[in-house]
Amino acid sequence: MLKVLLTSQDISAGIDQLAAEITAHYAEKDLTIIGVMTGSIILLSDLIRRLDRRMRVGLIQARSYQGENTTAGHLQVNADMLPEVEGTHVLLLDDIFDSGQTLSELVNRFQKLGATSVRTAVLLRKDRPRDVTLTADHVVFDIGNHFVVGYGLDYNDEYRNLPHIAILPTQDFPS
Ligand code: IMP
Ligand code: MG
Predict the structure, then answer these.
(1) pLDDT for 48
(2) Which of 46, 64, 139, 175 is the most exposed place for a label (fewest CB within 10 A)?
(3) What pLDDT, in 10s, does the model give residues 10-21?
(4) Is the CB of residue 63 less than 8 Å from the CB of residue 79?
């Protein structure tokens, strides 16, 4: 049974606020927003339509676990769809800040690619201890340490199409 944590109205109001923060922070700067696939695709499409300014949009794919695993392993990155980012301000957009490994590794990678600045924005941040020093620059919602699905977030690539965010109870994970 899925329990709704954030309704589509909650999410929409949160993204209005995120768009306002990004607009204020970057002002006239040369901005490239990079969505981390696959979980950020719905967030990316909703966010960029609220940003009335010049900017580039790109995608990178990162996966830290596959299939029915719900704990992170080695990060696989596919940067084939990435635009040129050297000399631009990069904002990495991801669905959730869990261990922080994904965004830590990606921030490093974009710094090496010569971005002028690299910052991060996430829809959700889990309340849990972390080994990484990185903290997300923009967080729309702080949540408990639950496994959540919907609005782009998946379990085994299912549930991404839910318009809201729901908690997937641990008894629903195959053991
Ligand atoms: P991190 O590297 O541990 O911060 O995890 C980042 C990635 O793990 C996210 O981009 C998600 O794809 C995935 N992830 C972490 N927690 C959840 C969750 O509760 N539901 C679905 N995916 C999650
Ligand atoms: Mg995922």
Answers:
(1) 98
(2) 175
(3) 999 999 999 999
(4) no
- Cα(99) to ligand 1 centroid in Å equals 8
In this structure, the residue with its CA closest to atom 5 of ligand 1 is 98
CA distance 114 to 75: 21
Q: Which of 46, 94, 95, 98 is catalytic?
A: 98
Type and span of the H or E element at 104: helix 101-112
Q: Is the pTM of this model over 0.90?
A: yes
CA distance 23 to 150: 26
> What pLDDT is attached to residue 65?
64
Residues lining ligand 1, Cβ inside 6 A: 36, 39, 64, 72, 94-102, 147-149, 153-154
Pocket test for ligand 1, best of 6, 61, 76, 95 (most atoms within 8 A of CB): 95
Domains and CATH numbers, the chain: 13-64+76-143 (3.40.50.2020)
What the block records as the tokens of 131 is 């080994």
> Which residue CA neighbors atom 3 of ligand 1 most closely?
99
Helix (H, G, I), strand (E, B) or coil at 170: helix
pLDDT (0 to 100) of residue 47: 98
Catalytic residue list contains 95: no
